[in-house]
Specification:
58% helix, 2 domains, mainly alpha, single chain, three-stranded antiparallel beta sheet, 178 residues
Amino acid sequence: MNISTIMQIMIFMLGLSMMAQASNAQADPDCVFPNSSKAAPDWVCDAPVEGVEVSAVGSKPKSGAGLAFMKQMAATDARVQLAQQMKVHVANQVKQYMDTTGEGNSKTADEIKTSVTKQVTSESLSGTQIFRSIVAPDGTMYVLVGVDTAAVHKLSEAAIKASMKTDAALWQKFKASK
């Protein structure tokens, strides 16, 4: 073999090596299923989904009861998480409203915030829906349950209104601001 042939082989090998590295870099997904190296949709890893204001991912391991049961249980798991998120979301809205009005002492604001969060937690989170579902390689069902923007505002406002009605002065200010 002459030097020219050796150089061509080395360049060819270098090119193959670079192509292999590039394909490996592209093969590393941003999100994988738990206990797996298989790529999963981004929402499984809690990435936001367009059009879904507040969401949660629930899961249910493979069950002999079937896919429908697994989906229902995964949705229930997600709704529990969603209720916690909604409590925080509504509490922040109440705080923002109280800061905006500048009315009431902190005791009144805390009472209303507590009342609102209790109401949201006790609600069945009407307006929630399953936006996505997928079965992982190990058979676990994952679902994305969420509330779209309109439903979040409707649920939040209903909870705030119901709670503020207990304090007539704040309720009048709230109605006037709307």
